[in-house]
Fold:
Amino acid sequence: MTQPFTNLFAGNNLNRLSILRSNKTFLAASLTSPYTRFIALRALDPLLKPSESPKHVEIAWLAPANVQGAIDNGAFVALLGIDEEEEVEEFQIDKTDGESMVMKGRVYWAVDMTPTSQDNGAIDRINKELEESHGAQYSPLRQKLSELPWSRDTAILAQARAIGDWNTRNQYCPGCGRKTVSEEAGYKRICPRASKDQQKATAASVDPKPKGEAQALDEQQQPACLSLSGVHNFQYPRTDPVVIVAIVHPTDPNKILLGRQSRFPPGWYTCIAGFMEGGETLEEACRREVWEEAGVKVGPVFYHSSQPWPFPNSIMLGCIGKATTEEIDLGDQELEDAKWFTREQVLGAISAYESPSKDGPKTDNMQLRIPPPYAIAHQLIKAWAQRWKGYNVADAKM
Structure:
């Protein structure tokens, strides 16, 4: 049985309130409540400020008053959820069945502070004011991973970036090409042709230019949009599953298979990973990826842990597997190299992060470098090196 483990970006305790994403009364009340907090993103870069811990950063949480001007100028917002452990406010909510319910907690939203050509510079001015007043700045998230705390706040940040990215990438309907409209507090995008009523209601915002007779006739003759019926994966946010697996040698449990791509820093090796395909189990995906990239066949596969990875919107499914063959063949040439490394080599690479100098990990003259602790690859390699109890290679059976 696997042991519970938390990676960076895990630990989000928010109730995501999917049942209230269409409740206009609740949404309006929570957007303006003085207790509500916002994560601001500009071109998907979060607003971060220095934390009390040296060389670390944290989210610059914003109140509704800080972002109302941007919202008034069209800034996109998405509901993240409510922290029911922070009983700072109570919401009385009328349900569709005539009953009512009470929600207590602090509500969290994400707001897209990316300037647009329609806001006449207003959002840019607000951003500058926020950076000055909060001692913060918008920073590329990837560049700040080693400075972020392994906390609930960072997990919420992953959610905010993922939903922001999905809405940014899905501005147009793949069924007919029309500009989509956001619904359900940022968790659904619909084609304005989904219904005549919706088309009329959104016509001004979707296509503000007056339609000529030829254009109107052309639209009437267009076939019905694919989104008119059924549920489609382009209407709702999607998460792409990625398997990442540390492979143990078939006969020597003190060796592990790691690979590198040509773009990696010198000496850097990591676990083999790849996207899952349709009709494929987690175990089958691990076996396929390892065989395609390294030519090694894999038998038993053990689940270790998962990690949300908001670049743009993946879930990393971490596993440890046992190889049944030893010979390496870089079949699809995705890897520049793959090798079997000893436990001693791996422990040396891990120690560089656990006892770093003031300038960072000690990597000079190292035979092996591995990803930093915030990456699930590091945790998988470390689990094997320190003989994780969830995987006992001696007992592994086909």
Notes: The chain has two domains: 18-170, 240-387. DSSP finds nine helices and 16 strands in the chain. The longest helix spans residues 152-169. Confidence is low (pLDDT under 50) at residues 195-211, 213-218.
